[in-house]
Structure formats: structure tokens, C-alpha cells
Write a structure and sequence with these properties.
Blueprint (H helix, E strand, L loop, with lengths): L2 H4 L7 E2 L5 H9 L10 E6 L2 H11 L10 E8 L1 H6 L7 H4 L1 H24 L3 E5 L6 H7 L6 E12 L11 H4 L13 H13 L10 H8 L10 H7 L8
Antiparallel strand pairs: 1-5, 2-3, 3-5, 4-5
Helix pairs in contact: 2-6
The structure holds flavin mononucleotide.
Flavin mononucleotide binds next to strand 4.
Length: 242
């Protein structure tokens, strides 16, 4: 079994070092793709001013200064629509199925890049925080209709070696032939493991269990994320509730 994958941890501090990012871009391009439509686009952000504006959206310290390289993975159905004969019904490229296919393709490509980076001695962290203001991301990256900025990914040479975060017990997250039968009360023991992890994080130590983390999310700031449905509609996706 691949112990590098089992030892995954997000890296948020990077050394100043040159990296063959084009090789990572090729890994993204080589990733499996739903229906082979390759419904994603990868944008590498090298412009400092643009990166600073994205940093303001994300609010993440990871994006401060020259720390690592930023990639944005974009759901992209625009190419498919551009290839359709003029006047065609493009429903199959704007519906839930097309949008989900774009999400699969963009996410799998991002994970493939991170996994490859980790196997190559690099590290990284996803940045879902670009979704704090999706419309601003669309404007900043000049994204056309039928696209959506799904996920950021920072990659670089690690300048930290964090402890791995313990995961939920198998009994709660892995089922055989159906939904796992584990009792959610098993989270109590896991709470202790998570609390131990957070208590021993050096300067970043805090009093936190898995349950407290989940409950904090009930009141976490959503920024502009509640607008995602309306933004997707403006981008030309047709995603009805029923
Ligand atoms: C879709 C997604 C979005 C994420 N967004 C952020 C983010 O915006 N900022 C951040 O610091 N970490 C982000 N992360 C990293 C998670 O915080 C991290 O994976 C999780 O805490 C588990 O830690 P580990 O990756 O070190 O095992 C994201 C992870 C995923 C899968």
C-alpha cells in the first residue's frame, strides 16, 4: 500500500524553490474524465496583483507573499457548448449531470496533482476558501459563461512537517454492502484523539474536539457562498431543485 498517501497532511508553508509546475499541469490533464469530456480548466496564478486579490477573497495566510504556487480548478462546460452546432439544444451541457461531471473532473484533477506532488516530495493544500466570493473569482479570472471556479490548490516545497490529523473511525465511514452500522456515539473516543491532536499543535494548539468543530460550523461565516445557486444560474447552468 502507498504509505505516502496514508501519510497525507496539508502543507501551508512552502520554501522558496523552483518546481516543475508544468509537469503537475500535465498530471491534471492526464486525469480520468467523466465521459472523456474533460470538463475542467486549470488556471495557474502567476500574477502578483491577481494573487493578492484572490488572497483577499480567501482570507488565508497561505496566500501571503511568495508562499507556494496557486492553481484554480474550474468547472468548464463552455468548450462543449462552443463545439455544439449553432442552434443546438445544449441542455446536456448545462444540466446537473454536466455540472457534476465538471465538479468530478476538476476535483479529481486537483487531487491527482496533490497526490503526485506528495509522491514527488512536494506538498500542498486545497483552498475551498476561493468560494468565499465566487462572483469576484469569476470576474478576476475572466471566466466565461458555463464555467465555475470550484477549488484552489497551493503546491510547493514543504517548509513544515505537521502531524497527520486522525480520521473518523472506520466503523462510521466505511460500510460493506450498505450504510455503515456504527453508532455515532463512537465519535466520543474519536473526539479524544482529535482533542489530543489539537492540544499538541505547538503554537497553533487549541481546545477542539471533532464534535466541537462540527458544531462551530453551524454558525461559521458563509461569506457569499449562499449566492452560489444564483451565480451558477447567471453562469448559464440550469440546476432545478426537482
Ligand atoms: C475541498 C477542500 C477545501 C479545503 N479548503 C481549505 C481552505 O480553504 N483553507 C485551508 O487551510 N485548508 C483547506 N482544506 C484542507 C483541509 O482543512 C484539510 O484537508 C483537513 O483539515 C484535513 O487535514 P489534512 O489535509 O492535513 O489531513 C480544504 C480541503 C478540501 C478537501
Amino acid at each position: 500500500m502507498d504509505t505516502i498517501a496514508l501519510n497525507h497532511r496539508s502543507i501551508r508553508r512552502f520554501k522558496a524553490a523552483s518546481v516543475d509546475y508544468q509537469a503537475l499541469e500535465d498530471v491534471a490533464r492526464a486525469t480520468a474524465s467523466s465521459e472523456f469530456l474533460q470538463s475542467f480548466t486549470l488556471i495557474r496564478v502567476t500574477d502578483k496583483a491577481l494573487r493578492e486579490q484572490i488572497a483577499a477573497i480567501s482570507g488565508s495566510a497561505v496566500l501571503q507573499g511568495d508562499n507556494g504556487e496557486l492553481f484554480v480548478f474550474v468547472v468548464d462546460c463552455a468548450r462543449d457548448i462552443a463545439l455544439a452546432p449553432t442552434g443546438s439544444d445544449v441542455h446536456n451541457f448545462t444540466n446537473w449531470n454536466a455540472f457534476l461531471a465538471g465538479c468530478f473532473d476538476a476535483t479529481l484533477a486537483a487531487q491527482n496533482v496533490l497526490a503526485c506532488a506528495e509522491r514527488s516530495g512536494l506538498g500542498g493544500v486545497f483552498l475551498g476558501s476561493i468560494l468565499n466570493d465566487p462572483q469576484r473569482m469569476i470576474d478576476l479570472l475572466h471566466l466565461p459563461r458555463h464555467t465555475f471556479p470550484l477549488l484552489g490548490l497551493m503546491v510547493g516545497v514543504p517548509d513544515e512537517a505537521p502531524q497527520p490529523k486522525p480520521r473518523l473511525p472506520r466503523a462510521l465511514t466505511v460500510g460493506e454492502n450498505g450504510y455503515p452500522q456504527g453508532d455515532v456515539a463512537q465519535v466520543r473516543a474519536y473526539d479524544t484523539a482529535v482533542a489530543h491532536y489539537y492540544a499538541n499543535r505547538g503554537a497553533d494548539a487549541r481546545d477542539e474536539s471533532f464534535t466541537s468543530l462540527v458544531q462551530r460550523h453551524l454558525t461559521a461565516a458563509v461569506h457569499h457562498r449562499d449566492e452560489i445557486g444564483a451565480i451558477l444560474a447567471r453562469q448559464g447552468f440550469v440546476l432545478p431543485q426537482d
